[in-house]
Amino acid sequence: MSRTKTVWIFLALAILMLSFFIADLITGSAEISSRQVLSILLGGEGESIHSYIIFRLRLPRALAALFIGAGLSVSGVLMQSLFRNPLAGPYVLGVSSGASLMVALMLMMGGAGLSFLLFSGFGLALTAIIGALAVMFLVLFIAIRVHDSVSLLIIGIMIAGLTSSIVGIIQYFTSPELLQNYIVWTFGSLTAVEYADLSILIPVVSLGLIWSLSIQKSLNILLLGDNNAQLLGVNLKRIRYAIILITGLVAGVITAFAGPIAFIGVAVPHLVRNLFKTNNHFVVISGSILTGASLLLACDIISQLPGTNISLPINSVTSLIGAPIIIWIIVKNKRLYSSNF
Amino acid sequence: MKEQCYILTTNDLQIGYQGKVLCSSINVQLPPAKMVALMGVNGSGKSTFMRTLTGLSKSLTGTVKIEGKEIQKYSREDLSRLLAVVLTDHINAPEMTVKELVGYGRYPHTGWFGRLRIEDLKIVKEALDLVGMTEFESRHLYTLSDGELQRTLIARAIAQETKLIFLDEPASHLDIPNKAMIINLLKRLTVEKGITIIYSSHDMGMVKKYADLIWLFDENGNLQEIDFQQGVESGIFERTFGEAYQES
To answer: How many helices (H) and strands (E) does chain A have?
Structure first.
């Protein structure tokens, strides 16, 4: 693909993301026009009720969608490169489950005496990051020994099953009130994200995105396999730890504040590779930031069910959109997916 | 001759894996610009020896030195500017083009961003010309035959511009004309560019015609450094390969 065409696609994606961001601010039970939204954002409406709705409710939700979509997609790119598995992603390989287990422990068992952490966003984020990192290390430990993609995928699913069963046991022994908190959290929600949460989420995800771009050269060489990558100067250990830390931090903090959000991490990297027809990680990571943010903003708009007062859990919408995208891409490129990705 | 004058030396090297010893007391001193054929029956230790010489596997005991410096003392980055390796590993990137793959050979010479400069692109083009893959440069890897892929991988090693190139059975997927073309090209690299080539091979005819030296894992599992004539006259080929040698 020519450089001009690549630049045009980037430009189109940036415009799409901005349009969905504005559309997300317009969408909701209270009718606020696009002109009003722009006026409120520019400080033109003082402290009106509409201004309150935009700044207190819709802007944090849209910002959360933007950063979570970008963060999950880039985590997916990194995991697919590390494991050389087209179906790798934070949700599929159990990373989100690890974070969920830790959140379940915090929400339903009062943090085993660490209740001072329970009600702070920082505490929740920290525990989810620990859970995500633990699973990433475990999956990598197994991946070094088990080389084929299907086995690794099954192991990832088993780890997710294992953490789910532990969560199930915790659920059985917990009180109905605490159980309800956890169940609502598992639906995934962008509406619960507040500015205090964003003050942790945005810097952590931004750090992850910048760090990912900084290792793009090594990620490109990793496409040639571990041996070839080493022979071309890549320090394998360092790059593996970098990927684990980035995905653990990003997927962990996202899961803590928005719950386990499925399919974005797996679907977006494929969508971007298909769009740009390249494996170059600078393009794939940058494209995934814009596409992931746009897709989650679109899912958030759909989940608001415009014209009604009902809103759907975000996780249901991402699955409804993400799963067919993956099937479509695999069927479209069956020759590529028969032995490779 | 001083140790620094040799491109590659080993001192009392013992190779193997998972505690299993394949060969001991390997002492070689290789001057630059030679073409070395690595021979031996299957399972004799050729690949393990090559992995040890390139730093992909650790030796059980002893040392490997490149230009007089122990291989472990080089960073992977520095090593990638000294030696290139053509492996038989599967490359899992079907969307990659021939030109992109050869361009990866320039990565050790690029900056943080990995962007290829005009001179890098020129070197990539020259490498593609040398292996006769210029007209395939825009083709995706999944469209290539085994032989075409092998020539592309050799072009990538050439583009890496190193003093040493290791090749694991470089001609195994090639038909007779392409086999002759590639081995002839490797010989030209040693003569014209002073590159040292170490390659594993089972092809006696090609070894006789092009190799300056043979490193042979003999019937007792020891590494012998010989030339072709010595191999025939001493009867070591016959003892190592048995009847199959006489047939070839």
So the answer is: 17, 0
Ramachandran angles phi, psi of B82, nearest 5°? -105, -35
CA-based nearest distance A339→chain B, Å: 8
Which backbone phi and psi does B196 adopt, to 5 degrees?
-90, 130
| B55 neighbourhood in chain A, CB within 8 Å | 230
What DSSP character marks residue B105?
G
In this structure, which amino acid lies at residue A158? M
User: Which residues of B, range 2-61, sit inside 8 Å of A by Cβ?
Assistant: 54-56
Q: Which ranges of chain A have pLDDT less than 50?
A: 336, 338-341
Q: Which residue in the block uniquely carries the two structure tokens 């006259």?
A: B233
DSSP state of A57: I
Helix (H, G, I), strand (E, B) or coil at B37: strand
Is the pLDDT at B13 greater than 60? The verdict is yes
Query: CA B17, B22, B23: angle at the middle one, nearest 5?
Result: 125
Which among A335, A250, A314, A300 has a CA at the least distance from the CA of A77? A250
Is some CB atom of chain A closer than 8 A to the CB atom of B138?
Answer: no
Whole-angstrom Cα Rg for chain B = 18
Q: How far is CA A302 from CA A134, A320, A321, A325, B69, in A?
A: 34, 11, 10, 16, 63
Instruction: Please report, to the nearest 10 degrees, the dihedral formed by the alpha carbons of residues A94, A99, A100, A106 taken in order.
Output: 150
What's the mean per-residue pLDDT of chain B? 89
Residue of A107, A193, A231, A188 whose CA lies nearest to B162: A231
B43 CB-side CA count, 13 A: 4
Q: Quote ipTM for the complex.
A: 0.87
Whole-structure pTM value: 0.83
| B124 close to B159: Cβ distance less than 8 angstroms | yes
In chain A, where are the structural domains located? 59-337
Judged by DSSP in three states, A211 sits in: helix
Tokens of A178: 């605490």
Of A217, A235, A277, the CB nearest to B95: A277
What three-state secondary structure class fits A313? Answer: coil
The owner of tokens 């010595």 is B230
* Alpha helix stretches (DSSP H) within B25-160: 46-53, 76-80, 98-103, 118-130, 146-159
Contact pairs from chain A to chain B, CB under 8 Å: 84
Q: Find residues 66-125 of chain B whose CB sits inside 8 Å of chain A.
A: 75-77, 79-81, 83-85, 87, 89-96, 100-101, 104-105, 107-108, 110, 112-114
Q: How crowded is residue A52: how many other Cβ atoms within 10 Å of its Cβ? A: 13
Residues of A with CB below 8 A from B56's CB?
227, 230-231
User: Residue A323: helix, strand or coil by DSSP?
Assistant: helix
Enumerate the domain spans of chain B: 1-82+195-248
For B75-126, the pLDDT digits (tens) are: 999 999 999 999 877 777 777 889 999 999 999 999 878 889 999 999 999 9
Cα torsion angle, A286, A292, A298, A304, sign? negative
Instruction: Residues B1-82+195-248: name the CATH superfamily.
Output: P-loop containing nucleotide triphosphate hydrolases (3.40.50.300)
Please say whether the structural domain A59-337 has been given the CATH code 1.10.3470.10.
yes
